[in-house]
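Input (Release factor glutamine methyltransferase):
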Amino acid sequence: MSDEVTVGALWRRWRDVFTEKGVGTATLDAKLLVGHALGFNALQLAVRESELVSRLLASDVTKLMQKRLTGESVARILGHKEFYGLEFALNEATLEPRPDTELLVDLALKALPKSGRFVDLGTGSGCIPISVLANRPDARAVATDINPRALEMAGRNAERNGVANRLHLRQGDWFGALAPLPTPPREGEGAASGAGLDVRFDLILSNPPYISSEVVETLSPEVKDFDPRLALDGGPDGLGPYRIIAAEAARWLKPGGKILVEIGYDQGEAVSNLFGAAGFSQIAVEKDLAGLDRVVSA
Ligand code: GLN
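Output:
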């Protein structure tokens, strides 16, 4: 007797296991993971259904499937995720890009002036600035992250998506990652040397950690056990990073510049108030496709 199995039987077998264990997207996940182990795309998976899979490969498939059953997402297992129509590599230091965050990119593309320059604070995989730059060949950006392992991914993703020459990476905490602003020239001294006053930005972007420490503990295993805690936990009330960003943002913006931050569905008012208290005007809360508050602009 042989335990050899066909391609089609293999993914169906795992689809049934996933269904039984309550994995929401059982068919898709089973196909993606079998395809990954065999090196097949979706089309090959369909047309090569009746080919036999070697035992060695079937055991590779089993390993991937067991990871999925611990709650690890398919994107994390495969090590990449699609966002804004582009492909992003992930590692343990990067949040898995969420479709909700595409709203921030849409709004940034609208807000950015011609040949504009922007910064993304806490960039992780770099999905936000890279998506903006890929759609705006005239734009330039700085992306910061406190974790060098995240910046490694952002750099690789910028290369892969052809925008590395327009994205500058800086390591550090929020605005602390940026070089200090030069002091303005004194009367009669002319323009400051070097980059001069042009270090301010037209636009500041951020999707900071915004979940309260207490709530982080209650998230699904897929998020809590596999997304980096540093990218989720916004402190006791989830607003810690916004306080820092709001307090410092104005001096990094050109006159008339704008800031856009992603927020949790129930943080619209609190984050608007923080920006109001920091002297910002024209504060608005934007809703995502699900009708939930998702971005604050100021
Ligand atoms: N939107 C993410 C979640 O719900 C959180 C991302 C973040 O904290 N910036 O898991």
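The chain has two domains: 5-69, 80-297.
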